[in-house]
Amino acid sequence: MKHGERTRLFFLTIAIVMAAGALVAGCAVGPNFRRPPAPEISTYTETKLPGKTATAPVAGGEAQHFVPGREISAEWWTLFQSEALTRLIQEALANSPTLAAAQAALREAGETLTAQKGVVYYPQVDANASARREKFSGASIGQAGGGAIFFTLYNASVSVSYALDIFGGGRRELEALRSQVDYQRFQLEAAYLTLAANVVTAAVREASLRAQLQATQDIVAAQEKRLNLVERQFRFGAVSRSDVLAQQALLAQSKAALPPLEKELNQTRTLLAVLAGRLPSEGAAIPSFVLSDLRLPRELPVSLPSSLVRQRPDVRASEELLHAASAQVGVATANLYPQITLSGSYGSETAKLRNLFDGNTMIWNLGASLLQPVFHGGQLTAKRRAAIAAYDRAAAQYRESVLQAFRNVADVLLALEADARALGAQAEAEAAARDTLDLTQKQFEAGAVNYLSLLNAERQYQQAKISLVQAQAARFADSAALFQALGGGWWNRGKQAGASETRKE
Questions:
Q1: d(CA 465, CA 475)
Q2: Which residues contact 270 (CB under 8 A, 6 or more apart)?
Q3: Does residue 62 sit in helix, strand or coil?
Q4: For residue 406, what are the contacts with CB-CB under 8 A and spacing of at least 6?
Q5: How many angstroms separate the Cα of 404 from the Cα of each of 308, 398, 401, 475?
Q6: Helix/strand/coil for 71
Q7: What integer pLDDT is reported at residue 349 of this predicted model?
Q8: What is the pLDDT of residue 489?
């Protein structure tokens, strides 16, 4: 047989054996993963929520309408109608190291999957070349007393090996790796959503602190004027020294509230800078936020309960871990069955380099090996039981993530309704406290009430004004929390991008 014919016969044999192995590998042992069904419920809360929230006669007191089944915008933060907030979120999404790390983890998982595909689907082909100088004694070949023999041996060959995936262990491993890729993808979406929500929450927090700080400063200014008045009255004998001291104490208490607010405001600014991927010293480049620059979303989408488990990135990530655990049960099961490996090599071996590729120097081999586990001290069956236990653990963690997701949505929906009613009550309390203070001030000037009544009215108004600001901010913060609890609309990102391109055209 000629050299070329032998070469073709060798590789044809390898191809036929691998094709036969691929045909044999038609099934995979272990469980086939089935996605857990969504909870069969129609509402998030124990009692039915009203179609809209209560209103309040102050800024941020508009009614919010709950719209069941409405799609969530992927850029839900634009509903607050703040260009500064939108720009800051875009900057954060572009520069966040947290997102960069999540993107790198996704790429890493993808490349790991690609590498494993090369092992499972394709033969491993390697080219080898070697040259070595040897010396041995003639006695080793039966020449007693023979002298030493020197020679050089040259070798060039191609080797092929292929493990037949008859029982699907390799394919189950790929299944687990694909699930890891999807897990990292949903982790990225979760990081994306969390970052956007954190920026919105921090911006609302800053706006709230600025309003509280301004309200406290206004109160301090009013109390300083009142202290000057009381001191003048004291000089003329209209009030006692204890009244002056009481007003000084109240003013000192109000001033003492300023440093904690300033500290928290500065820390919030630092947080916004870091969320945007900047150093704290670069906080001057971060826009300032006040409540009057934000608009309360008037219509709030509420996803159907049956859709929530498909929308929440954390639930989807937990599902992919469950899928990977299921696939690992298949891997552990396949390890109990025989493993067949095909191998072969073709090349040339000669003592003279110029004869390396001559026909009479060609060497080749074909082989197959079968490995059947017989006794491993219970190791393989124990590993399979461990894989099943890991699956059970992942299933329990998945159920926990679903419960927490529904709890998050229920809590936020209840909070939004409570926030609206609380804001209305605080608006009434602030108006009543303001009117009471004005009336008490007039009565005090007319001598109808004592100074203690005036101090009590001042304290009530100060507390009511701060509480009103906090109630206004709570509506904005919980509106953002609802979008986060419902998944943030990441599944609409591609649709919106396509729609934008269409409009541009």
A1: 16
A2: 280, 283
A3: coil
A4: 39, 44, 305, 308
A5: 11, 10, 5, 22
A6: coil
A7: 83
A8: 93
Of 470, 457, 467, 466, the residue nearest 223 (C-alpha): 457
Using CA atoms, how far residue 80 sits from 3, 85, 86, 291, in Å, is 78, 8, 9, 11
- Residues of the chain short of pLDDT 50, as ranges, are 1, 24-25, 497-505
The HSE-up count of residue 110 (CA atoms within 13 Å, CB side) is 7
137 forms beta bridges with: 148
Torsion of CA 319, 320, 323, 327, to 10 degrees: -160
**Which pLDDT score is estimated for 233?**
81
Tokens representing 32 are 């086939």
Q: What is the pLDDT of residues 142-175, one digit of tens each?
A: 666 666 777 788 888 899 999 898 899 999 999 9
DSSP state of 353: G
Q: CA 175 from chain center: how many Å? A: 22
Residue 253 host element (H or E): helix 241-256
d(CA 33, CA 42): 27
Phi, psi dihedral angles at 452 (to 5 degrees): -60, -35
Reduced to 3 states (helix: H, G, I; strand: E, B; else coil), residue 252 is: helix
Instruction: Please name which of 263, 222, 227, 232 lies closest in space to residue 245, comparing C-alpha atoms.
Output: 227
Q: What is the pLDDT of residue 146?
A: 60
Among 184, 193, 160, CA closest to 73: 193
CA–CA gap between residue 200 and residue 473 (Å, rounded)? 11
